[in-house]
Automatic annotation (TrEMBL):
Organism annotation: Sutcliffiella horikoshii
Residue stretches in coiled coil: 70-104
Chain ranges passing through the membrane: none
Keyword Hydrolase belongs to the record: no
Family recorded in the similarity comment: Belongs to the gas vesicle GvpA family.
Lineage: Bacteria, Bacillati, Bacillota, Bacilli, Bacillales
Keyword RNA-binding: no
Gene Ontology molecular functions: structural molecule activity
UniProt name for this protein: Gas vesicle protein
PANTHER family, A to Z: GAS VESICLE PROTEIN A1, GAS VESICLE STRUCTURAL PROTEIN 2-RELATED
Amino acid sequence: MAVQTTGQSSTIVDVLEKILDKGVVIAGDITVGIADVELLTIKIRLIVASVDKAKEIGMDWWETDPYLSSKAVDNNTKALEEENKMLQERLESLERKLDSNRINSTEFNY
């Protein structure tokens, strides 16, 4: 019994390089049910690709995740500070209007 080999041999490095260059998507769903009643569905999606390839296809969520990027924390903090400032200004404006209405209503209560 003879063992046949192909003319091309791929090392693990070659295979890994091709996978990272092109990307691989593995998708699967797990459904748990009893008597045709679905109790739980788990959707599993795994994408294996290089960072450059992921960015090329629009996947850059790790750049905005505060657990993975210090820049995301800074952006999130700035956004919260700006929102807080706007809310403070709005609250002060509403309080001034409310005070103005109270003053006007007491002038006409004679």
